[in-house]
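tokens incoming
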């Protein structure tokens, strides 16, 4: 933003080019100048001008809202009149060449701090064009007295969307998943996102608040949401577990009644008996429960002792309960048939290759044919496979961002790539979710690891994050890409 008379300048780097960021920069510019220009000249960009026929102009509603709040008049330049906005065009080139080139910075905030310093020390210390005796900073001080006063309450530009979650307690916003209370699954909610915060509202009640993530395919979680879900699931699981125990072992109900009478721990006893039910079967457990009851030994350890004695007397092995870390103890892994993996190995001597979402996008995008050829070469004669999570992410990308040519390419890729269920390896399941390594990354990379096949991936950050935790996946990295709306 350049003030026409003084040449006072305001600029900001942002992580996106959305309308929300465009309006937010207006507000920051007004606050930096300490006032509002009476009129602002714009190029005919879609964020400002929706439709134009000569002097008949239909402005974007949100730019009109901003103009009404700050009392300035938006004025688009004439069509194909580049000379009418030369001050801004020259300033963009100045920032690109004199400030940004070869500059190092640690974060977006650091880059903008450096930009403010450069504007104050370099740009505003130049002479005003046409007045060699006056500096830009001096002219800006004079011009500030002629600007409109700032309103008492500034506008806070935010993105507002109505979204419903799926089967899981997460809302997807801007390609990332934010946790919500599990009681609100499949319920229409409102997401209000600023530059730094994502809030979730149920009606007019705030039910979740998260720091905004500017990455891709990340899970941002509130520990309170996960804890509440875990407590609810545990209560439900305990109730279902007792019903299963009573249905398979009639002796269990009177046994647990005696445990309660002797001040025993019902929850812990039930959990241990359910594990014994899985290890020994209903018939053996029911008989051992009756035997322990007759002896007056009302504890799960006593039942386990009876079962172990009987197995040893028959010369049969006694099941050993594995000692699992707390973080993986509650994970439920769905059993899948391994036939498709066996078939995969039989059909190709060179086996298969696992493609992540970035590799699938590279095969279908139209802006970089060389990358598409590279991925095809890396696949070679191997059978391309992709997990169900991977294909769901890819379908979302195609439906929301692909152009017509890319959608045609995606149809052929869907027909060629073999879908396999998520079945991560044991060591992948032991990984912690971090900012660089999402839950979906663990599923995709872990499934390739479980199959013993290579994964072609564009997510080098996830691979490094897994390596930092001691898990090195067999991957073939490729450059990241995206759809170009062709």
């Amino acid at each position: 933003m350049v003030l026409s008379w003084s040449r006072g300048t305001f600029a900001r780097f942002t992580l996106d080019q959305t309308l929300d960021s465009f309006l937010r920069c207006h507000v920051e510019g007004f606050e930096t100048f300490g006032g509002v220009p009476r009129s602002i000249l714009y190029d005919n960009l879609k964020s400002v001008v929706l439709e134009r026929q000569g002097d008949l102009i239909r402005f974007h509603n949100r730019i009109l809202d901003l103009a009404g709040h700050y009392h300035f008049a938006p004025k688009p330049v004439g069509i194909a009149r580049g000379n009418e906005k030369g001050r801004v065009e020259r300033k963009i080139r100045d920032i690109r060449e004199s400030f940004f080139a070869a500059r190092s910075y640690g974060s977006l905030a650091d880059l903008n701090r450096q930009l403010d310093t450069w504007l104050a020390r370099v740009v505003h210390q130049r002479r005003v064009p046409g007045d060699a005796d006056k500096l830009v900073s001096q002219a800006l001080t004079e011009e500030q007295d002629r600007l409109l006063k700032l309103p008492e309450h500034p506008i806070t530009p935010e993105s507002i969307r109505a979204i419903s979650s799926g089967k899981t307690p997460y809302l997807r916003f801007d390609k990332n998943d934010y946790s919500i209370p599990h009681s609100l699954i499949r319920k229409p909610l409102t997401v209000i996102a600023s530059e730094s915060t994502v809030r979730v509202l149920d009606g007019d009640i705030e039910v979740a608040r998260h720091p905004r993530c500017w990455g891709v395919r990340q899970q941002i979680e509130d520990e309170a949401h996960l804890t509440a879900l875990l407590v609810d699931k545990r209560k439900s699981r305990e109730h279902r577990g007792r019903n299963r125990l009573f249905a398979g072992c009639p002796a269990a109900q009177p046994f647990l009644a005696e445990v309660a009478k002797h001040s025993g721990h019902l929850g812990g006893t039930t959990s241990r008996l359910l594990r014994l039910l899985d290890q020994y079967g209903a018939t053996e457990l029911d008989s051992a429960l009756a035997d322990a009851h007759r002896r007056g030994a009302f504890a799960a350890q006593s039942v386990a002792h009876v079962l172990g004695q009987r197995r040893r007397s028959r010369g049969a092995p006694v099941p050993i309960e594995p000692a699992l870390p707390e973080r993986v103890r509650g994970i439920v892994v769905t059993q899948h048939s391994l036939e498709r993996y066996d078939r995969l190995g039989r059909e190709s001597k060179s086996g298969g290759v696992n493609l992540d979402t970035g590799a699938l996008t590279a095969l279908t995008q139209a802006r970089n044919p060389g990358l598409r050829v590279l991925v095809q070469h890396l696949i070679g004669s191997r059978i391309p496979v992709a997990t169900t999570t991977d294909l769901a992410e890819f379908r979302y990308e195609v439906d929301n961002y692909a152009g017509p040519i890319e959608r045609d390419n995606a149809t052929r890729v869907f027909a060629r790539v073999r879908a396999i269920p998520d079945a991560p390896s044991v060591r992948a399941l032991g990984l912690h979710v971090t900012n660089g390594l999402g839950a979906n990354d663990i599923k995709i990379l872990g499934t390739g690891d479980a199959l013993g096949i290579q994964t072609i991936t564009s997510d080098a950050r996830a691979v490094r994050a897994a390596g930092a935790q001691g898990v090195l996946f067999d991957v073939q990295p490729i450059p990241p890409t995206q759809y170009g709306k062709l």
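note: The radius of gyration is 32 Å.
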